[in-house]
Write a structure and sequence with these properties.
- The complex is a heterodimer of chains A (417) and B (322).
- By secondary structure, chain A is α+β, with helices and mostly antiparallel strands.
- Chain A is elongated and about 75 Å long.
- In chain A, 23% of the residues lie in helices and 39% in strands.
- The longest helix of chain A has 22 residues.
- Chain A has 2 domains: 215 residues, Thrombin, subunit H, CATH 2.40.10.120; 190 residues, Protein Transport Mog1p, Chain A (3-Layer(aba) Sandwich).
- Chain B folds into 2 domains: 97 residues, Tumour Suppressor Smad4; 192 residues, no CATH class.
- In chain B, the strands form 2 sheets. Chain B has a 5-stranded antiparallel beta sheet, with no helix packed on it.
- The interface between A and B is large, with 57 and 42 residues.
Amino acid sequence: MCLAVLTALFCPNRLAAERLTEDVFRQYKSRVVQVRVIERSSGSKSGIGSGFFVSQDGHVVTNYHVIADIVNAPQSYRLEIILQDGSVLPAKLLDLDIVHDLALVFLDAETKSWFELSKADIRRGARVYSIGNPRDLGFHIVEGTFNGNIANSLYEKINFTGSLNPGMSGGPAITEQGEVIGVNVATQGNQLSFLVPVAFAERLLSRTLERGGPNPIRFSEQARQQLVANQDDYIKRLIASDHEKVALGRYSVPSSIGKSFRCWAQVDDSLEQQPYNSLSHYCSTQDNIYISRRLATGAVTFRHEFLESKEMNMFQFYTLYQAKLEHMAWNLSAKEEDVTSFDCHSDFIRISDGKFKAALCVRAYKKLEGLYDAVFVSAALNDSHSGLLSSLVMTGVSFENALKFSREFVGGISWEK
Amino acid sequence: MGEVIFVEILDKHDRVKERHRCDSFPVTIGRSYSNDVIISDSQVCPEHVRLVRDESGQIWAQDLGSVNGVFRAGAIEKVPRIPIKCDTKLHIGATTVRFRTQTYRVADTVPSSMQGVYWRSGFVSRRNAALASLLMVIVTMLIVYQGFVETLTPMRYFNAALAVLFPSILMVLVWAGIWSLVSRVVHSRSYFTAHFIIGFLAISAWFSLSITADYVKFALASPLIGSLVGYAATFAVVTSVLFGHLSFCSTRSVYSRLAGSGGFAGLLVGVAFLMSYTSGEEFSTELEFAKELKPPMFVLAPIKDPDKFFADAGEMKPGSFD
């Protein structure tokens, strides 16, 4: 009794916050639903996520990755929505935004309570509540902090300092006043989570309402068109933006391009016993677009490694150099169901008066016509005791853009005699 | 003075087992020791056939009432009396008998066979064996040295080289042994040293060519030329090795030995090509470009402008899978 009084006296904010969270949950939980993907032949669920009402008519926003099976294998899966009272209703997909990982689902039932989508006015540090059904354990509310948009990304994303868990994907993140600021989408652990800004959900809803019905184009084709348009857009943006450079030995190589890349330098200090030095520079966009359980795409990464040895003879050095090239890892995980084998073109090329061996390898996406994975590799051949290996990996780009961006990348390499 | 006739007893392959010269008639053939020609065959009667000459000089074979009879070669009916000409063949019991006269014209002399014997004996002279051994030692040392020069950890490489060298020599010994056996059967001499040297040179050539092929592939920056050089080298090595071995265990002419070895090598290369061609159809996540890197001085192909490189790369048709 006494303790409770003391707590009330000295921690008024905490009590207020608890009451507020409770109020927020009670007030808005009926607008949040669970989205289930059901395998047709067995009738059992193959995936779960969350979603929320955005209109009186029964429009529900969720993540694309929650309902991706419906797009990739519509004949094998169907959608179900579970309301707060436990009632189960069939639902159908209306539209999707694969790039921002959003989908709009329609429930043929009116709802009394829904979120109006509009741009919320929010400042960094403001309290945000995320609602969803983590791991099918029932509806949860998670408190967190709005931390602005993340920098260094190809796509706009909100940094939400709160714990999102699998199953909460597609649920809303709201303010105390019930304004949606974003859609739960991903987490990197330790309270570092991401939200899709509400503007994209708003755009998805308004274009569906304007059209007045489902998109007449097949969903997989819609997804393909969105991916093609998106890579055109970001490759253009990357080429137009500022290119930073970094010096590696006698070479100057491309580093961060625009603000979308995160770069790291690496000195291999396990090599103290080895008769050579290695200096690496690695940059990546780290923006993967989820396509299916097997396939993610849309990332651009590149790496440079400068190797030098004063102790080795030139044959020894080139043995090492070749082994480094042969053991390069590309981090390309796509399987035979989704991509073809690589086709490669290789030759000697001249870059700023230096000799290089270069190869461009490209493979096509089988189900997403016009999209490719591309790897450009070059190895400098200007010195018998030092070398530079560069590689550029692009996933889910058009063939033209693969050529264009590789050319741009090569243009960023220079050499001083 | 009558004509002399030769009675030849043949084996299953029609090779002469025994040859009897008969210059007075009648001649008796049978299993008992009273005969002029004795055949040790349980299906032949003690007195089986008699050869007689009539007034005109024609020789006849008469069945002496034998149990199993006399047959003309290839026929299925017994005959009591058969005229004998040069090269007539009869089946008596389970035995084939051939008759030839002095006028029988033998086949032409095979010239290479005897020369081959002299050549082969000359090849395995002590001096040549010494030269070959020296060559083997030099080639081995060169290959080991090449590895030494390129490797990063020479001591570990030395052990690895030994680990490769010993099994290779063992393999060559077995290989040479098999060929020696064939030589022994054909020429009654094994020529083991010669076969061993040929086998060893083949392995050395293989090592050297694969190293050279790497450099050629790199220097010309052309996987096509690289693989063509590889196929040509394989063809040349296999042809020479087979030709070398066959020279010590075949009685055929130089031309037919060469044709045989070349044909086999061609077949081998053809199969290898087909296999690599069809394996290209299988799914792979590998980047299949020539990854050889050699010091700058080995760059021989023209160096292209990046724009030209990307224009050429643009000609690719990635994903033309259907």
